[in-house]
Amino acid sequence: MVRHCITDDDILASGPTTRAVIEQVEKALTSARFAAQAQPHVLALVKALFLRLRLRSAVGEPAAATLLSKMLVLVGKQREDSRFEWKKEADAVLDSAIKVLGPATVLRFLPLGLSAENANPAKARAWLLPLLKPAVTNTRLAHFRETFVPLSAGFYNKAEEAKAANRAMEGKVWETLVGQVWALLPGYCEYPTDLVTAFDTDFVS
Questions:
Q1: Cross-strand bridge partners of residue 56
Q2: What is the DSSP string of the chain?
Q3: CA-CA-CA-CA torsion for 89, 107, 186, 94, nearest 10 degrees?
Q4: Average pLDDT over residues 86-115
Q5: DSSP string spanning 105-121?
Q6: Is the pLDDT confidence value at 119 over 70?
Q7: What CA–CA distance (Å, rounded) separates 19 from 25?
Q8: Which one, out of 17, 72, 74, 102, has a CA that is 20 to 30 A from the CA of 91?
Q9: Do 43 and 88 meet the contact criterion of CB atoms below 8 Å apart?
Q10: Exposed, middle or buried by CB within 10 Å (0-12, 13-18, 19+), for 117?
């Protein structure tokens, strides 16, 4: 339905049909009426919207970046709720969002909330790291360099500090985060849009 009922022109113009469909899906996403068995179907619609709104405007940004930002935040909040039943379906939505918008845009709306100063990574969005891994492709390698390389260095230092203080379990948590961060690199290296500028001798070393 979403694929065939909204025209390319209406999407690029943020037209009435596109906005009407988005408004109805947003309402369904937050409605108690659909919170039970119908929720997987609502999430399937959200996924379809992200894929349909991948069309790029004149400024080069996917239409979904502006039109579906609220929906992205709503799905993210549902996904991090421990009582939410439909995590698999929410993950499918986020996978599509990452592929369409790119990791930098998704993380702008759903920040990881992770840093070397964060004493409790479990309360951050560390669950996003494994979702990013299979979805990242054809994006800016510089984003990994600017965001994840310093993050990984901080995690490594925390792991070493924890091991030196005989806090083995804490050390393993930080080591796991280091591994999850570097597991993203192959995706960033797959058809990067800025290979010539980002992949220099400083990055290699």
A1: 62
A2: -HHHHS-HHHHHTT-HHHHHHHHHHHHHHH-GGGSSTTHHHHHHHHHHHHHHTT-B-TTS-BTHHHHSHHHHHHHHHHHT-TT-S-HHHHHHHHHHHHHHH-HHHHHHHS-----TT-S-GGGTTTTHHHHHHHH--SS-HHHIIIIIHHHHHHHHHHHHHHHHTT-HHHHHHHHHHHHHHHTTHHHHTSS-TTHHHHSSHHHH-
A3: 10
A4: 95
A5: HHHHHS-----TT-S-G
A6: no
A7: 10
A8: 17
A9: no
A10: exposed
pTM of the model: 0.90
Structure tokens at 106: 């998704």
Burial category of 33 from C-beta neighbours within 10 Å (exposed 0-12, middle 13-18, buried 19 and up): exposed
- Which position has the token pair 């800016």? 140
Which residues, in sequence order, are bridge partners of residue 62?
Answer: 56
| CB-CB contact of 84 with 78 (8 Å) | yes
The position carrying tokens 């690199």 is: 185
Q: 53-78, pLDDT tens digit by residue? A: 999 887 789 999 999 999 999 999 99
The pLDDT confidence band at residue 34, using thresholds 50, 70 and 90, is low
* Unique residue bearing structure tokens 């070493």: 160
> Token pair for residue 88?
């698999």
User: Are 71 and 100 spatial neighbours (Cβ–Cβ below 8 Å)?
Assistant: no
